[in-house]
TrEMBL record:
Bias-annotated ranges (Low complexity): 154-165
Organism phylogeny: Bacteria, Bacillati, Actinomycetota, Actinomycetes, Pseudonocardiales
Positions of the UniProt region annotated as Disordered: 154-173
Sequence intervals crossing the membrane: 21-42, 62-82, 94-119, 125-143, 180-198, 241-259, 280-303, 323-344
Keyword field: Membrane, Transmembrane, Transmembrane helix
Name this polypeptide is given: Uncharacterized protein
Length: 360
């Protein structure tokens, strides 16, 4: 593998030099904000979790406060002296467990972002704020866990190895993902084709599964469709199909070398390295949302095929029609979501910098 070495830029502040220390403090601050958010919601009678999990049962909203208290305790244990008495394995287990819990709390954030972009509104601003806070907490908690693990093992948080204090950063040349990862990307892209075709047929006014594009307009309006959504539909473009195409572009950028540098044809950006967080942020958000949604959806459709559950007919003329649409959607979400998770991990590993002994 060809690599180019460059000396890491001198950090401009102590916080940049010791991110494993300050990320724990940032997580504790987030926990205070998250807990306050939960208490204010409970005091005002505004449902956060109970609106979707247990309508009318505000006790469920106390889970936000409980998670905040546990996160604050675990985060402070990583940088305060009393935390040294806490077993390392137990503290890491708590931190990673909270990452999972906050990830579940952030589920649906991608849908809210899409709705905001195309319809200029969201289902619930309070719920969206909770999802955004939960997503922020998942990132901070993961950073706290990684920083604590590296600090207690004596390894470098940047490259994960052990080396002396004098080092230079090695940036790898753009490389393609392994063949298996690229194959997963191709399969994930192919899984989206029926979904894109279905949405495009409706946008052009055609008929799919016994429903015309005109029949889908009232359903879109009930779900908050408007603004940009209406404009694109009038041009024969379905917003979700366009987002699916952008998602496929992101997926292939994660597994091919051109995704690690800005396109040479872009104005003022000729082959500059892409910041790692730029493609990883939407990739992780999309994988964390679409993969579980698609897997659970396919499981439900499988149970329906076995006659164990029933599916509502909705606006469709028959059960077979709604099942056809559901299979197109769930196969797309599951295949693409899993492929995106695999590609994101490969991209993270391939673009991770290495540290070597600096040579004067």
């Amino acid at each position: 593998m060809t690599e180019t070495a460059r000396r890491a830029p001198t950090p401009s502040s102590p916080r940049q030099r010791s991110w494993p220390d300050w990320v724990g403090q940032a997580t504790a601050g987030w926990a205070a904000v998250y807990g306050t958010f939960g208490l204010v919601a409970i005091a005002s009678g505004a449902p956060v979790l109970s609106a979707s999990l247990a309508p009318g049962l505000f006790v469920a909203d106390w889970a936000v406060v409980a998670v905040a208290v546990l996160a604050a305790t675990a985060a402070t244990a990583t940088f305060l002296p009393w935390g040294r008495r806490v077993p390392r394995t137990g503290l890491l287990s708590v931190l990673w467990g909270l990452v999972v819990v906050c990830g579940l709390g952030a589920f649906g954030l991608l849908m809210q972002v899409v709705t905001l972009l195309v319809a200029h509104d969201v289902d619930s601003w309070l719920g969206t704020a909770h999802q955004a806070l939960a997503a922020t907490g998942a990132v901070l908690l993961a950073g706290t866990a990684r920083g604590y693990r590296h600090r207690t093992r004596g390894t470098c948080p940047r490259c994960g190895t052990t080396h002396g204090p004098s080092s230079a950063r090695v940036r790898r040349e753009p490389t393609a993902a392994p063949r298996g990862v690229r194959l997963a990307a191709y399969i994930g892209s192919a899984a989206f084709l029926p979904y894109i075709a279905m949405k495009t047929v409706w946008a052009w006014g055609g008929t799919f599964a016994g429903v015309t594009g005109a029949d889908m307009i009232p359903s879109a309006e009930r779900q908050g469709g408007g603004g940009t959504w209406t404009v694109l539909e009038s041009w024969g473009l379905d917003p979700t199909a366009l987002l699916a195409a952008l998602g496929v572009f992101l997926l292939h950028g994660l597994v091919h070398p051109w995704g690690q540098v800005f396109p040479r044809w872009a104005p003022l950006l000729t082959g500059r390295p892409v910041p790692r967080w730029l493609p990883l942020t939407p990739a992780l958000l999309g994988a964390a949302t679409l993969a579980p949604y698609g897997v659970l959806g396919l499981g439900y459709l499988t149970l329906n095929a076995l006659g164990l559950v029933t599916i509502r007919q909705g606006d469709f003329q028959s059960t077979e029609d709604v099942l056809l649409v559901a299979w197109c959607g769930m196969v797309a979400f599951c295949g693409y979501g899993l492929a995106l998770a695999v590609a994101a991990r490969s991209y993270f590993v391939r673009t991770r910098p290495r540290c070597v002994v600096a040579v004067s």
